[in-house]
Amino acid sequence: MDFSITLSWPGGSRSFDANSELSVLELAVAAGVPVPNSCQRGDCGQCKAELVLSDGIPPTAEKIVYLCMTHSLTPSEYRLKGDPFRAPELVRAYRAKVRSIDRITENVVRLVIVTPPNKFMEFCGGQFARLTVVDGITRDYSIASVDPISREITFYIRLLNSGKFSNWLTERATVGQLLQMRGPMGCFALLEQAVGRSWFVATGTGIVPIYALLCRMDDDHSRLCGQKTLLWGNRTEGDLFLLDELKTVCAAKDIAFQVIFSQDERHPKARVTDILVKQDLADSAVYAAGFSQMVCDVHKLVLDRGLCESRFHADIF
Asked: What count of other Cβ atoms lies within 10 Å of the Cβ of residue 291?
């Protein structure tokens, strides 16, 4: 194709030749632009961008696209929210040690690791780290917290049947064991614009990145978020963890908190979508984290309820 695509961001831009067989994300990465991405199927939302020009003409209304799902057939320009070259500067490799392993529910393990004395990892709430253990087993997990004094990094990990990392946690992991960590990564973060209401929606261990996000929410971001509500969906009470910590942070930051159960006979059976479907979301922001089907269901529902695409942020597990 004899035309170019431009990818811009605050403070910079890059143009590259078009190719209808490759997505804009693939073209950008090939051109050396480290656009954040994970799933490459339009679920994680990390490669979200705004269409600025199509065949030299701006769209009549805001148009948000996912670069991994976008193939440009005309000269086009897409704008990223942040500078893609800044985030990788913070990503480092660490040699860490297991500090503790605790099974806190039937299906969730709390893993605490510690970095060496001269290696402290800073992170933004909502980010994740890549852990590599024996036999090269590698998985990405959301960071719940990082203690700047002890250098302890805490993860809450759901055990999966026949999962390689799960088997390592339950059968081979020992206190003092070394592992490799790379991070922090990810762009699940709070919007820098004011909205009337912010909805934080999680299922299962999807609560971990949202918990970290809320813990690190400062007063300025709290004001931008407007009225705040946290919805956490679980199957039964036996799936709950971090409950006291969540209640504490929600009370401190004036966040309405509701736990919803889908299979517990002691509670009305419901799902997070049952709450959202009753809301007018035109002046809202929605942050969803958890299983892919839940996030996809929430995404479709909130757009139908008037939410602007650019105000939907997701972290899919």
From this structure: 17
Its CATH class, for the domain covering 197-316, is alpha beta
> Model confidence over 98-142: pLDDT tens digits?
999 999 999 999 999 999 998 888 888 999 999 999 889 999 999
Give residue limits of the domains in the chain.
4-79, 91-185, 197-316
Residue 179 token pair? 């592992």
Q: What is the pTM of this model?
A: 0.82
Q: Which of 120, 279, 137 is nearest to 195 (CA)?
A: 279
- Does domain 4-79 match CATH 3.40.50.2000? no
Task: Pick the closest to residue 126 from 200, 208, 45, 201 (CA basis).
Answer: 208
Helix spans in 226-290 (H): 243-252, 272-276
Q: Which residue type, as a one-letter code, is found at position 235?
A: R
pLDDT digits (tens, 9 = 90+) for 184-214: 988 788 988 899 999 999 999 999 999 999 9
Phi, psi for residue 132 in degrees, rounded to 5? -125, 125
Q: Is the Cβ–Cβ distance between 130 and 121 less than 8 Å?
A: no
Class level of CATH domain 91-185 = mainly beta
Question: The tokens of 12 are what?
Answer: 């910079």
The 3-state DSSP class for residue 78 equals: strand
Number of neighbours of residue 109 by Cβ within 10 angstroms: 20
Residues 6+ apart with CB under 8 A from 177: 97, 98, 133
Q: Which two tokens stand for residue 62?
A: 């805001």
Helix runs in the chain, H state only: 24-30, 164-167, 207-215, 219-225, 243-252, 272-276, 292-304
Residues 6 or more apart whose Cβ sits within 8 Å of residue 304: none
Evaluate whether 277 touches 302 at the Cβ level (below 8 Å).
Answer: no
